[in-house]
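step=encode ok
step=design start
structure_in=
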């Protein structure tokens, strides 16, 4: 967050939030206190959680902690580039702002395609990592709006 003071055009600041920090009882309060020491507001910070953290048995606690972070004003996103096993029920989709997936795993994987469509229809921003430029129309039809680390056509 402190580095973002000089890069004012680089907003939303994405910060990785480990599962241990997510389920800690005072993580939302600690994040709120940390952001108060900067010139940023909580809405400019997007805390990114690994998909597997929500698929663990303690996922109910993780969902409550995401709600606490949202009450403090933080955006929360899910990184599903390695796995996509989190239960994407309606209440969880309403809490999350974005979903990041690996574009190389989308084609032919109907379960992942269904998750992308459900996330996009719930208003989540869907970001494809490692996507080829030539696949942008196909990905957009699925509900992917942005690309990250786009690859040139071979």
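sequence_out=
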């Amino acid at each position: 967050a402190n580095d973002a003071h000089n890069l004012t055009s680089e907003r939303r600041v994405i910060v990785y939030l480990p599962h241990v920090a997510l389920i800690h009882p005072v993580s939302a309060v600690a994040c709120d206190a940390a952001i108060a020491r900067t010139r940023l507001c909580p809405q400019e910070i997007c805390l990114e959680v690994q998909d597997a953290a929500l698929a663990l048995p303690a996922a109910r606690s993780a969902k409550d902690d995401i709600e606490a972070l949202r009450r403090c004003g933080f955006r929360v996103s899910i990184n599903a580039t390695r796995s996509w096993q989190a239960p994407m029920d309606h209440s969880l989709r309403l809490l999350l702002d974005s979903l990041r997936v690996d574009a190389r795993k989308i084609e032919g994987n109907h379960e992942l395609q269904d998750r992308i469509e459900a996330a996009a229809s719930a208003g989540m921003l869907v970001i494809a990592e490692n996507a080829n430029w030539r696949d942008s129309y196909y990905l957009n039809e699925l509900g992917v709006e942005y690309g990250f680390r786009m690859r040139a056509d071979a």
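step=design ok
step=annotate ok -> The CA atoms of residues 5 and 39 lie 7 Å apart.
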